[in-house]
């Protein structure tokens, strides 16, 4: 192996594992601020993002890998790749359904900068994008939140939405009774409020001001009925397998995405709507970053029924990972590894 010149500057990696991430004790405001900054930079055009890729390891396994790639300029100035293993049946081994790893690189010379456990990042940034979508698109003073799903991202959806809004009711439902009961108990303990557990989709969603679908279906199944949506509601479906009906987009005044480039993937809540031409680049109202950056309007009236579909952005991972590394350096958390 050839040796680098003796005068070559060393390269170090910052490393944060799961326990380091927990030691940062990130606040809701810190998470939302970091992800909102990334969205604003996306809207301003100071980013680069590639559509996510999927790797399926072998037939007979209910799972796949998501590979997300992107770059953010400005003070962040990092390129990054996140790989997430998404395996539905991990709960049978008492494991999270998703494991994630974020790598950050210097975009000026290509050297690696950091390796960060992204399991928590994935959950936090997904919840933050859900909540920020609601910040700009939800009806004024929403009173009822209906949430389907109890996987890792679901906790941060509800937690961060409750940080932004004073709901009268928070309803949750998931397929397994033990899962939804444990989910509600954790939320009640952490948020100090009552969580209503329902035993079916309709009683959870119907009439809610904000409707979030984060289910774990094994195949597309239209369990979320368009007729349950009241005028003026905000609907946020993002399950890997679609749970919505094909006529969902027919009642929407606006459809917003996190990134249109992600719409052509092989999975997603509106996969069929894109394939059949019911959602196109021309009918899409805006990307959320454009709204955050002030380039396009968000909600403009109480009567607008709005759909926000987010597939997950590498930019949110990079922005949140950057903020975490900055805080870790201030607190002396994590390790520094010699790479070169």
TrEMBL record:
Q: Which organism was this protein described from?
A: Roseovarius faecimaris
What SUPFAM superfamilies does the database record attribute to this sequence?
NAD(P)-binding Rossmann-fold domains (SSF51735)
**InterPro entries under this entry?**
NAD(P)-bd_dom_sf, ODC_Mu_crystall, ODC_N
Transmembrane portions of the chain: none
Looking at the record's lineage, which domain of life comes first?
Answer: Bacteria
One GO cellular component term noted in the UniProt record for this chain: cytoplasm
Name this polypeptide is given: Ornithine cyclodeaminase family protein
Q: Name one Pfam family in it.
A: OCD_Mu_crystall
